[in-house]
Amino acid sequence: MESMALSNLFIWSSFLLCFCLSNNANAGNIFIQPPSIAKNSRMAAMEKIAMIMADAGHNITYLAHTEYKVPDDFATAGIHVMKYQYPNDKVMYVPPDDMVQEYISMSIIDEMKAFMERGSVTEAYISNNMENLYTSDLITRLKETKFDLSIFDSVDFVLGTLMKKYLDAPTVLWSNAGFEFHCADWLVPLSLSSVPNIFTGYSNEMTFTERMYNVYYYINERYYMRDWIEMKEHYHKVYAPKIGLNYTKEKYLFDADLLLVQSNFAYYYPRPLLPNVIPVLGLKDRKANPLASPFKEFVDGAEHGFIILTFGSMPTGMDVKRREIFASVFANLKQRVIWRYGGPTPKTLGNNTMLVKWIPQNDLLSHRNLRVFMTHCGASGSAEAVYNGVPIIGIPLFYDQRQHCGILTHRHKMGRLVIFDEVNTELLSDALDDVLKNPVYKQNALKAQALARDQPMSASQTIKYWAEYVMKHNGADHLKSVPTQELNFFQYYLLDILFSILGFAVLVIVMFMSMIRKCFSRNKPKGNNVLTDKKVK
């Protein structure tokens, strides 16, 4: 009997060992490089992607700078973090409050220019990053690992593209803000008549004037992208030889096998895409964690519900006038308010308002007592609002936030728009009163939630599947449309063909008219004088 038990134990142990070895054999070595910037929503998204792939059994190497605070989950998941020296000047990518305030009052074109100027301002930061990373021993150790896949944020086009070449592994990009303008080479076929520019906040039902501006903004985008490519090429020309690479000029801002976009068509306006562009709505397809103190007591005891106000990871404070407006309006509400805020305490702050520098946003959004989510409409927050079916008041500040706000308030009709630069007590009170009392906003939010959740795979499963797909097939060249990406504006819209046809038609008309003139001139008398000079014989 004892020998039989030992035999069964041996069989089961062998089975488990084989199973584990089989899983380990299928595990890939994945390199992940988040944006080389301060902690923000882009960095948080890359952390979640790292966790998704680690949970799938893959070996993750996560590259970050020395100032980066490693999440506690990384150690549990077995994620290996490699660090390079943070730039000495510590120029931050995240704009401070005064720069955010400057953006708010800008025109769209000025905002585009500011984005490029900010790229120039942080040139020293990029230069130090390149120097610290590509001249360190760490770069050699990375090459020795022999990665099966590399994953980058699409915005890190300077460090990321050179690292992609160096590692020589299939590459997946993550576009955190949705269909971003620096991914324009990927977002073909392009339909300027029905796809609004990310800076504008237009809907897909554009007027003639809006379509005209949409084309104008697109042309400006392409112009500024040219400057970005030149900046990237400058640094690649300098640092490629230092890591044993031959410098070659590139046509694209960031070439890769696959682009994962934080969006989907239950959320975003329909648009044509190539097969290597995969929409993924958010990374919050998980159950909310239990709230800890002081949030738990504050929201559980909210008899009339509670409201959240947050402008994300960008601004920490607010100018005196506006913070007093927000505080005084909140003080007159029956609901409690959680306000993510890092500035001076407003004088009119009510007892019903909690000021905090950080919030467990997704956990709060799923709470039963939440009534309204007041948000700047960042990409991640907008996806969380839809996923949790929460009515919103959108207060966009700049860039993609206008577009996300337009999607939530116009397409899904799950909230109201408030222009930050026009905020006053009456406007803010009216918007809050409307969203709190009108049940249609909540109904529309729940409808958007149902559409967003009714997908064949969750966001985590989608990311896992496509990352493993690219690994398995050592790339995804068969999904690319290289000719489509290489066509210029005139070729893509067949304007060269149209002008050729028009030119040929004009040539035929000119030739026909010329023949008609010759025919008439041949039958026409040589002179109008009927008298002729005849010699007398």
Automatic annotation (TrEMBL):
<dbReference type="InterPro" id="IPR002213">
    <property type="entry name" value="UDP_glucos_trans"/>
</dbReference>
<protein>
    <submittedName>
        <fullName>Uncharacterized protein</fullName>
    </submittedName>
</protein>
<dbReference type="InterPro" id="IPR050271">
    <property type="entry name" value="UDP-glycosyltransferase"/>
</dbReference>
<comment type="similarity">
    <text>Belongs to the UDP-glycosyltransferase family.</text>
</comment>
<dbReference type="GO" id="GO:0008194">
    <property type="term" value="F:UDP-glycosyltransferase activity"/>
</dbReference>
<keyword id="KW-0328">Glycosyltransferase</keyword>
<keyword id="KW-0808">Transferase</keyword>
<dbReference type="Pfam" id="PF00201">
    <property type="entry name" value="UDPGT"/>
</dbReference>
<dbReference type="InterPro" id="IPR035595">
    <property type="entry name" value="UDP_glycos_trans_CS"/>
</dbReference>
